[in-house]
Specification:
Strand order of the largest sheet: 2-3-1-9-8-10-14-13
CATH architecture: 4-Layer Sandwich
Number of helices: 6
CATH class: Alpha Beta
Strand content: 25-35%
Helix content: 10-25%
Largest sheet: 8 strands, mixed
Structural class: alpha+beta
CATH topology: Glutamine Phosphoribosylpyrophosphate, subunit 1, domain 1
Number of strands: 14
Shape: globular
């Protein structure tokens, strides 16, 4: 699956930009990345909003237990890969019909987050149990929402193309040609929402930081959730 957004919609993290500058490598534009995906998978389904947002997916070569799905509804587009263990309970909670599926459920959960302020994003994503990664584009608010499961069982990568678009895909080799070293694995148990805000929903108070990779590694950085320091009863770090 592939999702690409202009920097007018969402900006890539500075750490990915720095990784590409620190170790220069060949890159291509977002349009070339999309064409590469479509040419590689002729049966792929694609959707776009002007030149600002592109989404495409295929069932080809998908893992048996991690199917890909796509849906469009009420100015929203969503790519979903994986499966939810608690889908049945959540389907009732969000009032989804019998013909629903995981991708529609995630869209309903996002709508609740968007429309029921101050409904917390951590609450919305933490309720999803299973193996998953998804990307939502809300055209009504020009918002991107991305998340992955706590153990990262569904691979998701993100990178920055030559012309500054932020791209997400489940195939690291696909992004490598367009993003070079401005490429990283999306951190497990995290979500991206609102002005490029990357946070952990498992540990929402802990900062997510990027560790530069070595030149030999495919990705240019690794994003990790900082763990709190152990403290004595006097409050002194040890």
């Amino acid at each position: 699956m592939l999702a690409i957004f202009s920097n007018d919609i969402v900006s890539g993290p500075q750490e990915l930009i720095d990784a590409g500058s620190r170790t220069p490598s060949p890159k291509t534009n977002a349009s070339d990345l999309l064409e590469t995906f479509i040419s590689r998978y002729p049966t792929a389904v694609s959707a776009r909003v002007g030149t600002e947002a592109y989404m495409s997916y295929t069932h080809e070569n998908q893992p048996l237990l991690q199917p890909r799905s796509f849906a469009m509804k009420e100015e929203m587009m969503c790519l979903f890969k994986g499966s939810l263990e608690n889908y049945g309970r959540l389907r009732q909670e969000y009032g989804l019909g019998k013909n629903g599926n995981e991708v529609l459920l995630v869209m309903e959960a996002y709508k609740a987050l968007r429309d029921r302020a101050p409904y917390p994003a951590t609450h919305m994503v933490a309720h999803l149990l299973g193996q998953f990664a998804f990307v939502i584009f809300d055209n009504s608010t020009s918002t991107v929402f991305v998340a992955s499961d706590q153990e990262g069982r569904v691979p998701l990568f993100w990178g920055i193309t030559k012309d500054g678009y932020l791209a997400f895909a489940d195939d690291v080799e696909l992004l490598k040609a367009s993003c070079g070293k401005s490429l990283a694995s999306f951190p497990p148990g995290c979500y991206l929402w609102r002005a490029s805000e990357l946070k952990s929903y498992e540990h929402p108070k802990n900062k997510v930081t990027a560790v530069p990779a070595t030149e030999e590694e495919i990705c240019g950085a690794t994003f990790k959730v900082e763990r709190p320091h152990l403290c004595t009863s006097l409050g002194v770090d040890i």
